Amino acid sequence: MSLKSVLRGCGAYLPDKILTNDDLARMVDTSDEWIRERTGIRERRVAAEGENTSDLAVKAASEALRAADLTPADVDLIVVATTTPDLTFPATAAIVQAKLGVEQGAAFDIQAVCTGFIYALSAADKFLASGQNRCALVIGAETFSRILDWEDRSTCVLFGDGAGAFVLEAQDADAAGERGFINSYLRCDGRLVDLLYVDGGVSATGSAGYVRMQGNKVFREAVIRISQAMERVAADAGVSVHDIDWFVPHQANERIIHGVVKKLDLRVDQVISTIAGQGNTSAASIPLAYSAGVADGRIKQGDLVLLEAMGGGLTWGAALLRA
Ligand code: ACO
Description:
CATH topology of the largest domain: Peroxisomal Thiolase, Chain A, domain 1
Number of helices: 11
Number of domains: 2
Structural class: alpha/beta
CATH class of the largest domain: Alpha Beta
CATH architecture of the largest domain: 3-Layer(aba) Sandwich
Bound molecules: acetyl coenzyme *A
Distance between the termini: 22 Å
């Protein structure tokens, strides 16, 4: 029997605290107008003191399990994409496993910064399609506010906290029909590490450090690499980017998203965008946007959906699935 991964349900969670552009303008030399024009962001969420990445992840995962009509007893794989783990070890996935009450299977984290969810989805699919596992929670969760230099206006205005989750189930490929994860295309070019990194870490400094980014250089790399990944993943699946119903991009910058739409001759109304209210939530942004598209009825069962991201590393990639 040939197996494939089918998306059974998704979920999202955002912390309560809202930080607006005007709030930021009282903290650093910036303005609502500058942030909106350059990025499309109006506000973002910030986790409360004591609210950790695993807490956000558990809330999104619980909602995804409810949507899938499954329980923690059904889950035998947890993959958490995060750059902001609760602790240096164990993996945030292990903490999430315990908090959810999952007592079986495997759990591990994936670190590919903003591309983390695409990497995590791709990894989970391999476990399910091989028959090694039956039901995976794939979670993107971040408390990016904890690694921001709140005096650096070039980075602190861009990011937000949040979590999103997918429940993937291994199903008989014939019975699943067209539904399910189709393929992915993953890349990394470590020579570009200096464009976007954190200036601390366990081995190098013994502290978490802060995000450092040459934003305009990252911007210049983004549209071309993302577009190439999207065209490649579609071509590998034997379809064209023009066959997709929905485009769910990593929410880094509205101008990057519109640049990709223009380059690939897509329509703006095919884009699921959450950037205005959430900012860049790194590995969480794709499942958060996907969940928004499902919740408001745009993404329906059977739709062809293309996901993409680019982030620190540089890493980038795309994935194609049929909802
Ligand atoms: N408010 C006001 N002015 C600002 C701010 C701010 N918040 N931030 C920077 N500026 C100033 C700069 O100092 C500069 O001033 P100068 O000309 O006097 O030197 C001017 O604005 C222009 O700066 P640029 O960096 O050239 O501005 P740009 O138009 O490139 O926009 C931005 C900056 C929004 C960061 C953009 O480059 C971007 O979105 N880059 C890509 C980000 C991204 O995709 N990251 C990848 C994912 S994140 C991850 O993986 C963790």
